[in-house]
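Late entry, glutamine complex.
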Amino acid sequence: MRHITVGVLGFQGAIEEHVYITRKALSEAGLDGEVKVVRKRGELEKLDGLIIPGGESTVIGGMMEHGGIMDYLRQTRGEFPVFGTCAGLIVLSRKVRDRVLGETNQPTAGILGVTVERNFFGRQGDSFEVDLEIPVIGGLFRGVFIRAPVIVDADSEVEVLCRLNGKIVAVRQKKVLATAFHPELTDDARMHIFFIKKIIG
Ligand code: GLN
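Prediction complete; structure with ligand written out below:
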């Protein structure tokens, strides 16, 4: 059986939670693998896939740019398995805007053909939980949203995996998977199993 190595980008956000749920996903899927926290570009080449946690996208994106990780991802053109959650979605997107500031021009990898709007749910809906319908993982999934973005525009090659009130909150394009919510903050490993089984493959 193939040994799978999944990296979790260790700059900011729910890093340990992603490590925990990815280990759980490997074990529930009956796969042989390991999960590593990575921070350097050189470590990426040894991985079968990378997870980018949420946090603050300008901070994470700046660190990725500085260390050459952003360039590495740009060169993969979406052929390397990456899973971004919340701020992790933002740093993968082609274009980022903010309702107040307009286009943010922050560094992103641009390997996901979407435009995202940061902090979409505004003050009142800053953080909330809601049941989402995600057919590719078999139905209902608890979505944890924390100052979350939404996808306001997507290329035709982008597969929409989930909407909330008509707004796109989970997508896949080639080997890039992204959610506006935080699956690592639930105990449900199905999104991570989907990433490992269907995208890393
Ligand atoms: N609001 C954050 C941003 O725009 C993302 C929040 C999150 O990752 N939970 O970067």
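Helices lie at 15-28, 41-44, 57-66, 69-76, 87-90, 190-200. Will revisit in the morning.
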